[in-house]
Amino acid sequence: MTKWTEWDAPKERWLLTERERGGWPRSLLFELCTRIVFPTVLVMSVYLLLAGHNDAGGGFSGGLVAGLAFVLRYLAGGSAELAAVRALRPPVLIGSGMSIALITALVPVAFGAPILSTALWTVTLPIVGTFKIATSLFLDIGVYLLIVGVVLDLLRTLGTGIERGELEP
Amino acid sequence: MLVAIVAHFAVAAALPAIAKRWGRNAFYVAALIPAASLVFALNRLGGVLDGAAPQESLAWAPGIGLEISLRMDPLALLMIVLVSGVGALVLCYSARYAKPGGEGITRESVLLLVFAGAMLGLVLADDIFSLYLFWELTTVCSFLLVGGRGLTPAIRRSATQALLVTGFGGLTMLLGLILLATAAGTYRISEIIAHPPGGAVTSVAVVLVLVGALTKSAQVPFHPWLPAAMVAPTPVSAYLHAAAMVKAGVYLVARFAPGFSDLTAWWVPVVVLGLWTMLLGGLRALREHDLKRLLAFGTVSQLGFLMVLVGSGGFVTALAGATLILAHGLFKSALFLTVGVLDKATGTRDIRELSGIGRRWPVLTAFVVLAAASMAGFPPLLGFVGKETAFTAFGSGSARDTVVLVCLVLGSVLTFAYSLRFVIGGFGTPQGKAPIAATWPGQGLVVPMAIPATAGLVCAFAVPWLEPLLAGYADAYPGHDYHLALWHGFTVPLGLSALVVLGGYLVHRGVQRAGLPVVRWPKYADAQAGYRGAVRALDALARRVTGRLQVGSLPVYLGVILLTAIVVPGAGLLAGVATPGPLRLWDSPMQVPIAILVLVATATVLLARRRLTAVLLTGVIGYGIGALFLVDGGPDLALAQFLVESLTLVVFVFVLRRLPERFVQDDRPPGKRARWTKAVIAVAGGIFVAALAMIVSASRDGLPDVSREYIERAQPAAGASNVVNAIIVDFRAFDTVGEIAVLAVAATGAASLILGAHRARRRPEREETEEVTE
């Protein structure tokens, strides 16, 4: 019989893991699954970004989904797993997201329209067919990049802190 | 006029490049701008004197009626002569005063020129906001120039004191100006003075404005910052703390006096504090051995004199004030520059060490005597003309005038005494003392000093031609029965002047023989102690408030936030209550199981002992609410809720690792009272939110107009069938851009804090690799 203050203590390990030399607990199964799922989640996030104009979704949701894909990879393998995306430096992502949004906001001024006004383009592509683009999509892309950057930044800073705390003897 | 001001700032921006190439000669380049401004202003002299004051205005926020408006009237022109004229001289002087290749050249030249521009703007400004802008710009320049590179604690302290005292005054003045402008219904200073508002508000407003003027012009009890600021380089002292910046307060009083000098709230503080300052400054100047501090207290005294003259109203008084503003700017800048010459030549400014300078350099000494005699009010110099006029102005024989006159005569006696002290102490040869070693400082330093000294003499004889300008300001008052002149015949003021000379000489002899009797002031009467006490009290208050609010306990912070949320909107709810409408049990049967799930999770959170359990259960609640959104037909909202909830969970887990595993440690059970307090606050918070939700959702019937509009226009205007997205990226896109900017700043800030903390923690153990952090 456990004490009542201990009722919510874990009774056993949830994942079958083994400790690597670096000390980060790894589960082969978990890691493999995330790697398989990862591209699908990213495609899903891009779908959400593009679909946002007519269905549920948008830059914010899409960015969060993409961010969560990285979170999954991180949870599975620590920052070593994130090395795959080391080229995407969070400050650069945040900065370019912000810049894209601002440029989108200012470009209409050059055409004599008030800032942030939207134009609608109809594009016909072979095979794909005809579809419609609103220029506000670019604002959404900016938001998407910025959110991904923020999530990666969280992983980089908070996550690293945890890791260091854990790895320290 | 706007062009002239902008030219100052533009050239100041280019000065670093010039200084890099030409070194200290950059000061000569800088001097061109004030000189050109002076020529430009004098060019307009004819128009200004005819009463057609040139005006300019630039509307920068026309929607709310804000503009920069400038106006050049006789008073402004008089001030420009000082600000730009003395500015050009001081900059020329600096070009030879600065050490060649010295480090501070760029900084000092830029700041001096920016200051000259700000001062020019200040005297030309005709709307209260421009006035305030330039006013504070001079304060900031003064802080930076006094502080220099902040090498010693004394310098930093002096600079901070100058900033705090004048900054405090400036803010108070802004409040007063806004009150005045609101009462008068216009931001234009010229219109406020032409039609001064009345009533109690005006009295309060003028007192607030006066606080600004009194602090800037170093009047009792704010005066100690000015002598303390003498740690600045001598050219800075000559320009800011003698000729220009400290005159800003006098200028402000002079500017507003024609409208308000009848108010008791105006003339009583001005006259009383002005006279007090004049006497106190004179006494303190007699005790100083450092020539620069002697002049500083002399400046304090003279500023008091000027305050009385320009603040008390009346044609002759204002004429005397205008004359003395000009005279003081000329002689005081000359004297300060002289101190710089002495300092350069001998390496000291101490009266007890200087000896024999007068015999060695008689021409230099002659110029110094000219300037000092003008300060002492000795004929035939401009200072004498001004003082005679002042004595005449208060010669009516009424009780008030007589009291003021007696104080002015006493103050002038002291002025004469410290002028003698300056000349004899700095240039005389005391008996039995060898002349001090000195090297000739060069024409470049002496000429800028000789020009204003000579101008005091020339102006005295040119008074008939100068009078239109000086009287142009005084014309705001009725009665034009007096003319400036060196010789009015054998009059009472002439007798008083003779008395001043005699008294001044006797006082100086007495001080030299016996020294000034040291008076022990009680602590509450010492202005410097008062300043220190005020700063200390402010610090203590800040510490107490911060200590109370930032206790470092998460439950307390949460409690404060919750209580505020309950009390503030709660009071509003109670005040204008709409009762919740009829309640339904559910809209869709799917809501029931979800609601039960949320409730169960909520109840279980209370039982959680581990933080992780609590966080996971809170996550369940969050997902449940997301599910409710979905059932109610808000897929966008639900999606966002699910995603944010997931991310929050992850972040929580990250942070939780740093906290103890369990809420309550076995060895430290929580107190009963604390538990009850927390429980009460939590329950009250819950009830409040529930009530708020019910009332808010009941108070809405049907779609608001805005929503209908958005839904109608989403497709045609934004090309989106998802209205939520149309709102985010089109209708309210401006908000979105603002929000992501906030997000970017917050994320970057948090990241730098965390990384900084890691680095700080890691510093002791260098051998660890950087690999993981990147």
Reconstruct the topology from this structure:
The complex is a heterodimer of chains A (169) and B (774).
Chain A: E1 18-19, E2 25-26, H1 28-51, H2 59-82, H3 90-110, E3 120-125, E4 129-134, H4 136-167
Antiparallel strand pairs in A: 1-2, 3-4
Helix pairs in contact in A: 1-2, 2-4, 3-4
Chain B: H1 2-22, H2 26-43, H3 45-49, E1 55-61, E2 66-71, H4 74-97, H5 105-124, H6 128-147, H7 153-184, H8 189-194, H9 200-216, H10 225-228, H11 234-243, H12 247-260, H13 264-287, H14 291-311, H15 315-346, H16 357-360, H17 362-376, H18 382-393, H19 399-427, H20 443-461, H21 463-474, H22 492-514, H23 527-549, H24 554-575, H25 591-607, H26 611-631, H27 635-656, H28 672-698, H29 705-718, H30 723-731, H31 733-762
Antiparallel strand pairs in B: 1-2
Helix pairs in contact in B: 1-2, 1-5, 2-4, 2-5, 4-5, 4-11, 4-15, 4-20, 4-21, 5-6, 6-7, 7-9, 9-12, 9-13, 11-15, 12-14, 13-14, 13-19, 14-15, 14-19, 15-17, 15-18, 15-20, 15-21, 17-19, 17-20, 18-20, 18-22, 19-22, 24-28, 25-26, 26-27, 29-30, 30-31
